[in-house]
Amino acid sequence: MLSLRSLLLTALAVSAGVANAAECDEDFTIESDGDASELASCSKFEGTLTIGEKVTSVNLDGVERITGDFIVEGARALTNLAAPRLTTIDGKFNLRDLTVLGTLSCPELLKVGELDFQTLPALKELGFAKGISDAGTVRISDTMLTSLDGLKLSDVQNFNINNNKFLKSVNVELTSVSEALLINFNGKGVQAAFPQLKWASNITIQDAANISFPKLEKVNNSLSFTNNTFQQAHFPKLKTAGDFAMVSCIKLTNVSANALESVTGTFLLANNTKLEEVNQFKELADVAGSVDISGAITKVELPALDDVRGGLNVQSTEELDCDALNELEGSAVKGEYECKGKLEVAESTEGGASTQGDGSSSGDEAEEDDSNAAGTVAVNFGLIAALGALSIFML
Ligand SMILES: *[C@@H]1O[C@H](CO)[C@@H](O)[C@H](O)[C@H]1NC(C)=O
Ligand SMILES: *[C@@H]1O[C@H](CO)[C@@H](O)[C@H](O)[C@H]1NC(C)=O
Ligand SMILES: *[C@@H]1O[C@H](CO)[C@@H](O)[C@H](O)[C@H]1NC(C)=O
Ligand SMILES: *[C@@H]1O[C@H](CO)[C@@H](O)[C@H](O)[C@H]1NC(C)=O
Ligand SMILES: *[C@@H]1O[C@H](CO)[C@@H](O)[C@H](O)[C@H]1NC(C)=O
Ligand SMILES: *[C@@H]1O[C@H](CO)[C@@H](O)[C@H](O)[C@H]1NC(C)=O
Predict the structure, then answer these.
(1) Ligand 6 center from residue 227 Cα (angstroms)
(2) In the β-sheet with 169-171, what is the strand arrangement from edge to edge?
(3) Which of 17, 144, 255, 360 is least enclosed by beta carbons within 10 angstroms?
């Protein structure tokens, strides 16, 4: 079938006298700067387009849609990449290991199956003038970007922004993240604002100087903040979370989630050295795991708490009144109970365990596999479409 198809297509190409142009429905690699012009007539390119390592500059004029992946990897001399008409990449848009790529220009790009940018040490701007409004997964790692202007996404599966040392702000109008939202190891003091975010499966944030989640209602799995420098953390609309964890946020003085009713995992506050009062969780009633609060805490008030299926551990180095909490021992609290003040060391029983494992920067395998799978599916769709078109043609 395949050989018959290529035979047929070659015959067609030769008879049409366009032997100099690339096929628009076969995978293609641009090996040198001039090769890009071979695609000029392919407004829809059905296949995977790759840029070879020797290319220094690409202008992909003419191509509006790539149904497979667009892969640019290891082209160490590539300084600029322009795709002035490209609106859609159905598969993966992968830029990786491009040492001198300083200019990326995809002004019309709206939709990408998956955006995966890694190790782009000269890239300061995304160059998506219209803004990408549709992408399944976004991973941006190890770039010079100072902002994420150009991402206008609403619903994504994964949003992973890590190791971008110059990034000052992440402000994206996401409304949902069905898998993980991960912001870590970027510039110290990144501002992470998600003004429209209503729910996410997981949220992990590190090294942020301020955060904003004004509309967040639900986090299915874990909501985790470690090693941040924000002073305030407010979750005014949050009703349920899997884990709720704040660890080693050394400037935190004020944390609130006054609509939070249930935590289906662990409620953990540990090593937030300036946090004194835990009294703004006014509706928190059910915790399926344990409650674990430690630090220089002077006040803990959880007035609605009536069902903790795990233990409750409250340890403070300061004077702490445990009277109200003591009433929960053996009734609301099903597991081990401890509340103590004036300790030399205030220890956390969970030890921040629920916040471990999210710290890896880029190459986590599971995600890698997922993305590859998605890319493959997109390519196969292209192939199936091509074969379908061919069989109609042959009838
Ligand atoms: C979400 O968090 C849970 C529990 O913390 C973890 O087991 C799971 O792997 C995370 N999922 C993703 C997609 O990161
Ligand atoms: C975050 O901090 C910066 C500078 O400290 C401030 O200008 C900005 O308004 C803050 N943003 C939020 C959402 O609090
Ligand atoms: C997470 O919560 C959202 C919003 O309630 C829901 O639509 C989604 O199905 C949930 N996802 C999982 C994996 O439970
Ligand atoms: C507590 O936080 C400080 C400052 O971030 C950090 O150096 C230390 O390792 C943390 N301790 C624990 C037990 O997590
Ligand atoms: C904590 O922040 C809330 C909301 O911004 C504010 O109303 C409250 O006064 C703050 N509390 C303290 C002790 O700073
Ligand atoms: C937080 O910072 C401490 C001290 O710098 C470090 O040991 C720890 O690994 C960091 N935690 C995470 C989750 O990165």
Answers:
(1) 6
(2) 169-171, 190-193, 208-212
(3) 17
